[in-house]
Each structure stands twice: as structure tokens, then as C-alpha cells.
Amino acid sequence: MFVNRNKPSKNTIFEIDSDANLMKNLSSFFLFILILTACNSTKHVSDNEHLLSQNYIFIDSVPNKSSALQKYILQKPNPKFLNIPFALYFHNIGNYNKPKTASEWGKKNPRSYNLVKNIFSEKQSIAYANSFIALNNWFLKSNAPVIVNKLKVKSTSENLLAYYKTQGYFKATIDTIINRYDDKKATVEYHITKGKPTTLDSINIRIESPVLDSIYKASGFKTLLKKGDQYNDKTFRNEAKNNLKLFKNNGIYHFKESALGFYVDSTRADYKTNVDFIISGNRLIEKDARYVEKPFKVQKIKEINVVTDYSFSRKGQRYLDSISYEGINFFAHNKVKYNPKYLSQSIFLKLNSVYKDTLRNLTRNHLKSLKNFKSTSIKFSEILGSDDELKMDIFLTPIEKYTLGFETELTHSNIREIGTSAKFSIIDRNTFKGAELLKLSFLGSYFNSRNGPGWEFGVDASLEIPRFVAPFGFSKLVPKEMSPRTYFSLGSSVQKNIGLDRKTFTILTDYKWKFNARKTIQLEIFNTQYIQNLNTDNYFGIYSSEFNNLNDVAQIYDGSSLPTDETQAFAAVKFMKTVSVDESFRASNPEEYSTTLNILNRYNIVTSDFLIPTIAYSFTYNNQSDFKDNNFSFLKIRIANSGNIMGLLSKSTNSNDKKTFFDIPLAQYFKTDIEYKKFWNIGTNSVFGFRTFLGAIIPYDNSDIPFTKSYFAGGSNDIRAWQTYELGPGIRQTGLEYNIGSFKFLTSAEYRFDVFSKLKGALFLDAGNIWDITGSSFVDSEAKFTGLNSLKDIAIGSGFGARVDFGFLILRFDVGFKTYEPYLNGSKWFKNYNFANAVYNIGINYPF
């Protein structure tokens, strides 16, 4: 049914404030442009056409906005944000009637065309014309207006009706209404009357093969088809899938879903149906140009062949090398370069074992996970003269043994201004003939920092082994079905003009395995890092605020000022040590004495070298099916301990009473990080994401927490309304350049949507802060976490962002506004919520 309706007009009054506030002026201007553009949303809609502005679905007269029904609608309105179709507006800037060739453009614009031609050449004038043509085409390629199409409306009606019939509403009806308006826009309404659903009555299962019947009964299989349940196509599909899996995993290699038949009695008028479920006892095979039936039989693996250097170009050529290991035959056109002992560990179907589909898939996935082969192909065929024996052929196409990698990117933060970094790597596959990966990487960067130009250089060597390498038989604790991995790494890096400059040495032994498709476990057994500060004399050059505070104390102490030349650090440290033991000054000036001790404590922590031997356990849950899946959850828990074993072995301490190992201060702490992320699809072009993080680090045995292992707040992947290290701890405004804590809470919510083409937008809200939970007497009460009462210290930032999706990476720009500032006196909400105090973030890929 089609009807015409006149859409009531709406008058909106806008008042433009003459206030000079930049935010208001920008908003008013932006709104004014949108109003002008909105009036032209039907620019490319013909007089006899109507732009689809909205679809409405009514189920039994009740409006329904379920996203589950949207996939059945063939025509959807142009994407909108804040009810504005930005992509359509960009499309409407283009003009279909503009010239399509340079010569046509020149005839229509002779003055500018000839001007360029006379100044330069005709070649340049053609390029000039083509640039305008290309720009016009670029606008036209954006989201074109969706015109209401009667045939698509009818097909959508049929889709919706068919969907409800799959749910058991066999007598459902649908009525369609197109509302056309005078402004060349239209809405479409789909009114569905479901009726009474049909339920299952008697269920008869008949298996025509004695072999299949025996497997079915022995398995204790429980059918999903239950008397009294509402008819649902999905239930029948799952029943077929479960039966297929049952027989394919019990030796019936040739079993197919076509052997399953469901017969539903639709003649009954009482909204009930009988179901006959028939499982055929034979399969069809082609013989002498005709199909004949052959009974199903349980089949076993009788022969296994592996080609380790397969390529299509050499298909059919003679193999020059072969090795047999535990009955498995390994072949190569040149030479078998893989150790059969290790390669056979990826083959889970064994000789004389019953064929199982799950083991076939496990074999394929395990071989792919070795990262040594471009492709893996597994084929089965019957042994000649036998119909219950199979031959298994595995064809492996190896990746080149040596590959080179090069990565480069721009970097930006409040610590590192615009800079560039590059990474060059060499990968050697099958290093020790067991599908190992040996990787040598060189990393370099150059940037501008607060202290002037800086650089970093690092080298790293890693070895990944696709099995556990462990003493005392521990390698047998994790079955090979879980794809166990051993990872060894050794690396070093040197930094200049970041903080105090530092040299880092790292050695790592890491075990990782997949408990199942969604759960991954990682065990860091020997993860040791040595951090050496190279320029401790620069401490007060970086923490200039601390030097100023110390200088104020010096003037009170003896009326003199601390030097600012190259002796600054020496003089400052000597002064702090002098004050720390001066009991008379402590009694007369307790506040200044406390300030000095706090600065001395931070100085000792930040300038100290550290040995950080870590043992850690990580658990990761991720149910994302692939990179396009936007409905998934992610959970990661990491528990770490540093310095436990070495602390027991060492009895040495330094002058600050900190435990050392080979005269190097030992970091001793327990650390736990918990991160949870959840994403929802909320339409065809929109995603809502949520992330929360909770972390705590607790030192013991009088140890300090290394600066690099402490928590910080702010930055492009954190609370985006504050710069990195700027926020916290607690409500204390330290004035320090680098603020750190031992406890952190962070949560973020982000709405992501398409704007047009590769441009995407986002609205976000970030909340969190850092606190101190060490109980140190050097920490102010305002920085300490004291329980639920400290939750009022949480800072809140909000903002918007733009992303350009290039496919291989996403370039991100976010603007964060300080929404709630817990450290302010008086009003804490929206006090600095403006562009002047906003933080602008540039990042690569999504923040979480």
C-alpha cells in the first residue's frame, strides 16, 4: 500500500550571540553552515524521486528498533551523525553536469584554461583542468542519496516475512507503507503481524545406516529438537551441524550435510508440526559417468605423506629427497630441510587412527602457526582397493628462509615532540631445522625533547621456538594441541635527552600457549632488565620545579642560593644531605625540612640504577572472531613479582639501606594489572567501545619502585584531556614534570562512527587517576589512596576525534577537554573546558 502525505513544516529560530568567546563563535558558524547545507540535502534528487530519510518497523503494532532486523532491509538512509548526513552533504557539493574531460572543461572555463596555457604550457592547462574534474568526482564518489525503490521495498518485505517464518510464524503477514513528502523525502513503514507461532510435536529420528546408528547411540548424542519448543530454523541448522560434527569425528570422512533430511508436516491447523529427521545410510559416488550409492564406513588413516617444499609449478615432478619418521613420509623436490621429529609434532592424525575432523583442523592450524609456510593444504584419498582406509597428503609451501622488514613512523608526545623512528629487522626461519624463528632488529629514532634534540638506538635478538624448551620434563606439562611457544630475547638500548638518559639491557625467557581458541596463557620465567642512568647530574635540569623549591629552602636555611652552573647537582645533593641530618632545622622549620627530605627521596629513586628480575603470569581472554568483528570482549590479567629469588640470595645493601645484587639496587615489588575491554556494534557504521584498567604495585623489603615501572596518567592512549605524566597523584598539584604513582584506575568510553569515505569520527569520555599506596612517609596525604573516599579524586576528560583509515593503519587526532578537575578549589566541573586548555593528541591506531 502506497500513500502520499504532506510533512508538516518546522520553523526553528537561532539566535547568534555577539559574545567574543571563540568557542561560541565557532559553534555558531559551524551550525550556520550546517543549516545552509541541510536545505540542499535533496540537490541530486529528481522531481519524481524521494530521498529515504527513515525506515520504521512495527511488530504487532509495536515499534521495533532491533539491530537483528536491519540486515534484512535492502535500503537504508544515508549515514548520519547528530541526525546530519555529512557524507551526503559532501556528495552534494559535486555536480553531475560539470565537464568530464579537460577539453570540455577548457571550453566552459576558457579564461583560466588559456591563462595557465599561456603562462606554462597546454600540458599544464590540461593537468589544471583535470584537477578540478578529479575534485568534482571525489565529491560525487561520496555517499550518494538513497532513493526509495519500490522493488527493493518489496524485496525487503519478503525478507522480513521470510525471517519470521524461520522463527515459526508460518502465517505471518506484512503491510508496507511509503510516506512521501513535499520536500522530496520519504519514510518507509513495515508493519508485521506475526500471528501464533508453531511448536514441535512428535519427533521421529530414523538412521538408515547400521554404522551411523551405532555411532549415534554410543555417543549419547542429545538432540536439540524438543517436543513443545517453538519452531526455529536455527535449531534445525544447529542440529544438522552437531550431527555432521559427530560423524566426521568418528571416522566417517565422506559424511556430508546432504545426508541429513528434516521433513516438517505443515498440513496441521493447530499450530503444531511433526518432524521426521532422516539420516541416510549411503553416499553418492561417481562411477562410469553415473552416480551410485555406497554405504558409509568408518575409515582409518593408513598412510601419511608430507611434501615440505611444494609449489604448483613443480606439481608432478619427482622428489629428490625423502625421510621416514614414525611411519610418516617426508618428501622434498630438493632437500628435506625440516627436522621430521619436530614437524611431525604438528600432525595430530596418526597412522592407524580413526579419522577425526577436529584433528584435521588442529593439524592445519598448528602448521600455520609455525609461521614458516605460505600455505598448507591437506588432502585425503582412499587407498586403492580399500574403502575403509585413507591416505593423508600434506602440501607445505615454505616462506623464504630470510626476509627483511622495515618500519617507520612519526612520533609525538608532550615528552617527545615531533620526531621519527625506524626499525630494521632480519628474520631467519627454520634456524635449527625445527621451524624456529630467529629475528635480529635494529631500532633508531631522532626527535626533539624538552632538553633539545635527542636520539635512541637499540638492538634486539630473539628466538621463537614452536614448542616448550624446559628442563626436568616441564615441557610435557602443556600438550602440543595448545601450540606451546618458547621465546628467548636479548636486547640493549641507549637513550639521549629523555629524562636522565639511560642505557637498558634486557634478557627474557617467555612461555606462551593457547588454552583454547579464546584463552591464552603467558609465563615469564626469566625476565631481567638492568637500567643504568647515564646523566644523573641533569636531574635538576629536568626537575626544575624541585630545584626552585630546594633553592627556597636554602635561602631560609642560610640565606644563600644554590648555584645554577655545572656544579648545580653536586651542590644540591650536598645541601639536601646536610639538611637531612640537621635536627635543629627540623625543629625550627619542619615544613622546609619535610620538603627537603621529599626531594632527596625522589632524587634517590629517579637517579638510582636498577636490576629488575621479574617472574610474571598473564591470562588473556579474547572472543573476537576476526579483525572485522566489532562485538567482542577482551580481558587480560597480569601478576608479576620482581626480586624475590635474587633478594633471598643477596645479603648486601647500599648506603640507602636498599638491597643490592652485584652492587646494583634490586627492585623488589609485586604488581598486578587488570584490563577489560568490550565492544558493541550499534548499527552498520557505528561501534561503541568501553575500556577499564586497574593496576597496583607494592614494594617490599625497603625497596623503591623503579621510575619505568610506576604508573602515570594522561596521554594519547590514556586520559586524553591531560598530557603524559601531567595528572596526579591524587589531588596533589606537584608542579613536577613527571608525576608517577603506585596505583592506577582508568576507564574510557568511545563512540566511533563513519563520516565519509576513509574519514571516521569519535566521541569519547575518559576518567581516572593515579595514587600512592606504598605507605611512604615521604608522600603527601593528598596523593595517597585511602579507600572509596579517594574515588572523588578521579579526573574526567571528554572530547572528540577524527581518524583516517588507511587499511594497514589508522591515523588518529583527538581533542581532549578537562571536564572534571579534582585538584581545583571551588568549582571543579567545566572550569577549563575550552579550546585554550584542550590537549591535542596525535596517535596511530585506536587508543584501545
Describe the overall structure.
The protein has 848 residues and is an alpha+beta fold. It is built from 16 helices and 34 strands. It has a 16-stranded antiparallel sheet. A five-stranded mixed sheet has the order 1-4-5-2-3, with helices on one face. Strands 12-13-11-15-14 form a five-stranded mixed sheet, with helices on one face. A hairpin with a 6-residue loop joins strand 14 and strand 15. Helix 12 packs across helix 13 and helix 12 (544-558) runs antiparallel to helix 15 (590-607). The longest helix has 20 residues, at 122-141. The protein is globular. Mean pLDDT is 89; it is low at 1-31.
Please give a handful of descriptors for the protein shown:
alpha+beta; 16-stranded antiparallel β-sheet; 5-stranded mixed β-sheet
Tell me what portion of residues adopts beta-strand conformation: 35-45%
* Integer average pLDDT: 89
Radius of gyration: 35 Å
What's the shape? globular
Binned, the helix content reads 10-25%
**Tally of individual helices:** 16
* Major β-sheet profile: 16 strands, antiparallel
* Low-pLDDT windows of residues: 1-31
**Which structural class matches the secondary elements?**
alpha+beta
Q: What is the straight-line distance between the termini?
A: 48 Å
> What is the number of beta strands?
34
Strand order of the largest sheet: 16-17-18-19-20-21-22-23-24-28-29-30-31-32-33-34
Lay out the secondary structure.
Blueprint: E1 2-4, H1 22-38, E2 51-59, E3 62-63, H2 86-93, H3 102-108, H4 110-119, H5 122-141, H6 150-166, E4 173-180, E5 185-193, E6 199-207, H7 210-219, H8 233-248, E7 260-264, E8 272-279, E9 282-287, E10 290-295, E11 300-307, E12 321-325, E13 328-332, H9 340-343, H10 357-369, E14 373-382, E15 389-398, E16 402-411, E17 416-429, E18 437-449, E19 452-465, E20 485-496, E21 502-514, E22 519-533, H11 539-542, H12 544-558, H13 568-580, H14 583-588, H15 590-607, E23 610-622, E24 632-642, H16 644-649, E25 652-653, E26 659-661, E27 664-665, E28 669-681, E29 686-699, E30 743-756, E31 759-771, E32 795-805, E33 810-820, E34 839-844
